[in-house]
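USER:
Before I trust my own judgement here, I would like a peer's view. Write it directly below this note and I will take it from there.

ASSISTANT:
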Amino acid sequence: MPAVETVRGPVDVAALGRTYMHEHVFCLSAEHVENYGAGDWWDEEEKVADAVAKLRELPARGITAIADPTVWGLGRYIPRIQRIAEQVPELNIIAATGIYTYNDLPFQFHYRGPGTLMDDGHDPMVGYFVRDLTQGIAGTGVKAAFLKCAMDAPGLTPGVERVLRAVAAAHRETGAPVTVHTESSIHAGRTVVEILGKEGVDLSKVVVGHAGDSNDLDYLMELADTGAILGMDRFGLDVINPTADRVRTVAALCERGYADRMVLSHDASCFIDWFGPDPATVPAFAPNWNYRHISDDVLPALREAGVPDGQIDQMLVANPRRYFTR
């Protein structure tokens, strides 16, 4: 079988086992930490130890791999992830490349690339993404295995569109699969699959992230009928869509024959600095937003809703394996 790159090196895709396809380890701005965190709310050793403890809960529940779509804009820092991965050898962590923005580009690309003051016919983003996928990330020796970008409530802004097209170009050059954060309330998945399809992306290698925030079966089936994979990947974020509704939607799609086009996850993290430095602020609005929720609560609920184990394995094992097989 082909290999997939992980933080500890290439692994046979057949050995991935049960895989959560959208889990972060840290969402953490380096500028935030360096300017305001050190000596205050950020203790590197403490946070690494906490992450190791939380991630060990996954293999204890039979989950042996996670795809971590933390890229530029979310605080990707591979040396920290390498330290953690070495201490959780039962879990494979798969890294990504790309840029995460809802609006504008990072200023490093604002004047460089298509349509800018320094337009030489190439987009430097594409070269960066390809380098991460083929040579490795920032001298760490770790290669990214998939591409990540986003389209949220602001819609297809010029910055978002440019990243989307750069991701498509990197996919065409490398064959790497793609995950796109989408905002379901505006049916952003439609725009994403339309543009990626026109850009020559193999839509069977595209996860429409956060599709599971929607319970609109017509919208979800429309996306799946393009060949794209539905990211039912925010279990525990009940503030957006309650678990019971998410379960009913997945069960309904399984009944309609779409188990081969869904993957499951939480979009959780060991630490995220979006909601303030105190990690206790997160459980206050999402008490089930953790790596345990699917195994402990969602899978039993899916079985009770009539989803057979074969379809559960399809979503957790076969679909991730197919996605990462080039």
